[in-house]
Amino acid sequence: MCLQAATIGGEHTGADQCIAAGFTPEYDPVDRVATWVIRGEIQERTRYNVRLFAPTGAQDPNGVRAFDGAPLEKEFTFAFTTGDKDQRAPVDDHAMGFCSVRSLCPLPDGACDGPMPIGVTQSPYEFLTSTCTGGGSCHGTGGDSRGPSGSVLRLDDDGAGGGTAAALRHLVTHAVVASETATGADPVTPSRNVLAPFGHNMPYIDATNPGNSFLLYKMILALAPRCPFDPNEESAMPFSAACDAAEKYAHWAYPQDLYDCGRVADARLARDALGNCPSDAGFPPLPKVGTKGEPISPLLEPRVPTDAWQPPARGEYDRLRNRVRGSGMPHDGLVSRAEALAISAWIADGARIEACPASVGTGTPAVGD
Fold first, then answer.
1. Where in the chain does DSSP place strands (E)?
2. What SS3 state is found at 260?
3. What is the pLDDT of residues 276-334, one digit of tens each?
4. For residue 351, which of 205, 149, 159, 135 has the smallest C-alpha distance?
5. What is the largest CA-CA distance in the chain?
6. Cα 248 to chain center, whole Å?
């Protein structure tokens, strides 16, 4: 990628005028968005040309390629103009902590019933501990497999009794290669060579790099279709049951009208002296997060608005399956887009592992307990 300050189109400026330093490329394979983060400042009130280069040949490490190695057909150029330096744009904060969860509650009926908070959208901690432990695995029944390596990923422990947190830290710290991708010369050395075939020696979790994390592609291959279901739209799991409220996948819809209660003290949700639940007048105005029956919204909003989203190209999921071997995950189920977005953002934010308070979600023990 090349960024150029210019008053005319990119085709009239030379590559020697590019700002060559200060970019960090990131790729979110869930949103299918490539981002070049500018480190530092660029000039105010200035037009900039952006040039996305196509590789010049099979051995060119530069340029844009698809995951299967297909090069960008030709150079693509667009432009933007900066404003005044004192007019700051909103920060695109896609940081996601390991324990992040949205506190939701019903209002007012039932607000006093059940534990608080209600974690409808799973945090990375909740997803990994519920999917990859407890007699199952991330993509199969698992048998007696233990530890953070092997064709079946189990996070019961790290082989030394360290628990889920230790197993995850081992995966991240050592960039443990998924056995289903270990096809390089050294089967334990993670591949980050831009010319290496996609899927070869891919780490389970490549910290800060969702685009090179095996775990995320396994989730993508199990993504539920969008609802309402369109049989003509390319999807990883092209069947309508995920959108049918009568089917087992209905938990991806809000079970009732829910509101953001994260700013409400627990006392506001307690019964009064007569044992009554608070009335409408007893609650401050709260933003409504979800309506009963609607698909659960993600913890982080997608970068691509719903009205601008485009389905993958026909056959893209089949090509991905040829590169990332094995079945999808979890076993006998699907992955919601909300969960995949959370995992992708967590990896991009450094895949940090911290102990979660016992009150997260449904009251499960803290990581490491």
1. 2-5, 23-28, 33-38, 47-52, 76-81, 104-105, 258-260, 288-290
2. strand
3. 776 666 666 677 888 887 777 778 888 888 888 888 989 998 888 888 875 555 445 67
4. 205
5. 77
6. 23
Confidence tier at 212 by pLDDT (50, 70, 90)? very high
Cβ contacts of 208 within 8 Å, gap of 6 or more: 26, 347, 348, 349, 350, 351
**Interatomic CA distance for residues 3 and 15, integer angstroms:** 9
Chain Cα centroid distance, residue 257? 25
Of 177, 192, 189, 184, give the one whose Cα is nearest residue 61.
192
For 107-142, b/e burial (b = at least 16 CB within 10 A) is bbeebbeeebbbbbbbbbbbbbbebbbeebbbbbeb
- Distance, in Å, from the CA atom of 79 to the CA atom of 6, rounded to the nearest integer, reads 9
Q: Express each pLDDT in 215-245 by its tens digit.
A: 899 889 888 888 778 889 998 888 777 776 5
Give the span between the Cα atoms of 255 and 114, in whole angstroms. Answer: 14
Residues near 303 by beta carbon (within 8 Å), at least 6 away in sequence: 28, 31, 33, 35, 92, 94
DSSP state of 79: E
334 contact partners, CB below 8 Å, separation of at least 6:
222, 223, 224, 237, 242, 249
Q: Which of 302, 233, 305, 321 is nearest to 28 (CA)?
A: 302
Tell me the per-residue pLDDT of 59-91, one tens digit each, with 9 for 90 and over: 888 888 888 788 999 999 899 999 988 887 777
